[in-house]
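Tokens in:
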């Protein structure tokens, strides 16, 4: 049975406990053994982390001991998957550049805040992970991200929708869902998920379910490559 660790906390406005529970249920339904922790000290035992198939951070903002981040980084490089959403993964530790390098991006703004009605467009990709999921609309925060150019983008959204200082730059397609490798580990991210209700939208729920499972297969893929 695959093992997963979900670590939740940080800013309560992102409903970390509720979202951690949603991810726990998705993984239990997929027959994972799931540990859920509300402390970053769950990252302290590097050897235990390496027994996991998947780490799911649900921790918006805050700071972490760099030694804990290095443990997670080393574990993912060894083949453990990393998957998460919204600020719980890509606005977790704003001052830690290794975390940002590993995850593939960092939130910088959400013009219009939580009242933006926008489209998420599924795009052709070398990864068929989102095959069969069509474009859809959502009313929530629209994340403007600084993104690693190495990521494999699976879905985008068009800016600008809400006005702001970015608007005169013209239209840009901002990644919403991406994958990447960190060493032998698979990394999956989706910028949707400001609150639990967004993750219960059928398309978003299915994106996250597939992403969690895909990331957990990184070690097996690494073995196949060698």
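Residues out:
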């Amino acid at each position: 049975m695959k093992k997963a660790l979900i670590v939740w906390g940080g800013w309560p406005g992102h409903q970390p406990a509720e979202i951690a529970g949603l991810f726990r249920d998705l993984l239990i339904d997929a027959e994972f053994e799931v540990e859920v922790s509300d402390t970053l000290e769950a990252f302290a035992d590097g050897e235990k982390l390496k027994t996991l198939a998947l780490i799911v951070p649900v921790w918006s903002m805050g700071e972490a001991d760099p030694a804990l981040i290095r443990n997670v980084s080393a574990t993912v490089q060894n083949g453990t998957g990393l998957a998460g959403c919204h600020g719980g993964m890509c606005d977790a530790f704003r001052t830690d550049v290794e975390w940002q390098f590993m995850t593939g991006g960092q939130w910088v703004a959400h013009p219009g805040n939580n009242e933006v009605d926008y489209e998420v467009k599924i795009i052709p990709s070398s990864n068929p992970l989102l095959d069969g999921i069509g474009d859809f609309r959502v009313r929530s925060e629209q994340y403007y991200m600084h993104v690693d150019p190495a990521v494999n983008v699976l879905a985008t959204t068009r800016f600008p929708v809400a006005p702001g200082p970015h608007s005169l730059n013209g239209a840009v397609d901002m990644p919403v869902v991406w994958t990447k490798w960190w060493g032998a580990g698979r990394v999956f991210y989706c910028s949707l998920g400001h609150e639990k209700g967004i993750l219960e939208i059928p398309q978003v729920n299915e994106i996250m379910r597939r992403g969690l499972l895909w990331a957990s297969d990184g070690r097996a893929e690494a073995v196949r490559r060698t």
